[in-house]
Automatic annotation (TrEMBL):
It comes from Nonomuraea maritima. Belongs to the azoreductase type 1 family. This is FMN dependent NADH:quinone oxidoreductase. Also exhibits azoreductase activity. Catalyzes the reductive cleavage of the azo bond in aromatic azo compounds to the corresponding amines. Quinone reductase that provides resistance to thiol-specific stress caused by electrophilic quinones. FMN binds at residues 13-15.
Length: 208
């Protein structure tokens, strides 16, 4: 199953365009494999609250590593309410073989809508081994190797470290459309051609 998430606050979005191209290609190559779509910007998941942290602490304290046993942690009405938010989100993740995330870079990192989803579905020592993550991203500037802002990229670095370090997923692919701001920011309008090249390469990669 392909779980497809989008996190851009806007509809006419480059990360949405890239993720939709990837999803169309994947679905054509895997007919009948299943597909679930979730728009984290249009239908935001709530931030975690205190009862969620109690679920988390119980799972850690009782060394529950089997995801199918997490519900044991929901003992009070408030905890059961918190679990009712987590369960459908986590079921989708567990059922997925590929998790595709369309996301912009916001303030050198990821949108809070995506972070809220990650916070909801992540528990201590939780492995998602055997799955793949694909991140289709758009950013206003350029952050590739050798660029002046390379070290400011806390979008790819954060997600890569998180997926590898916490979920133990090695198969992580990033597709970036860069310099999107060259379309609107007069001070970098001269980089428009570089942006067009970056976008064309990203669309090609997404369709592969
Ligand atoms: C709130 C906000 C913060 C942004 N922060 C950054 C940033 O730190 N670095 C950057 O290169 N672009 C930044 N941008 C530009 C976006 O990354 C760019 O517009 C991108 O295309 C957004 O993705 P989308 O087209 O999928 O909506 C920001 C845009 C917004 C709206």
């Amino acid at each position: 199953m392909l779980l497809h998430l989008d996190a851009s606050a806007r509809r006419a979005s480059f990360s949405r365009r890239l993720s939709s191209v990837y999803a169309e290609t994947w679905r054509a190559a895997h007919p009948g494999a299943g597909y679930v779509y979730r728009d984290l910007a249009a239908q935001p998941v709530p931030h975690i609250g205190e009862a969620w942290t109690e679920l988390c602490d119980h799972i850690l304290e009782h060394e529950i590593t089997d995801i199918s046993r997490y519900q044991e942690a929901a003992r009070t009405p408030a905890q059961r309410e918190a679990w009712a938010v987590v369960k459908p989100l986590l079921d989708e993740v567990v059922a997925a073989r590929v998790i595709l995330i369309g996301t912009p870079m916001y303030n050198y990192s990821i949108p809070s809508a995506l972070k809220a989803w990650l916070d909801q579905i992540t528990f201590p020592k939780m492995s998602l081994e055997g799955r793949s993550f694909v991140v289709a991203s758009a950013r206003g500037g350029a952050y590739g190797p050798g660029t002046p802002r390379e070290s400011y990229d806390h979008q790819e670095r954060y997600l890569r470290d998180f997926f590898r370090g916490h979920f133990r997923v090695e198969d992580v692919t990033f597709i970036h459309a860069e310099l999107v701001n060259a379309r609107i920011d007069p001070s970098i309008a001269h980089l428009r051609e570089q942006h067009e090249q970056s976008l064309a390469a990203a669309l090609k990669e997404a369709a592969r």
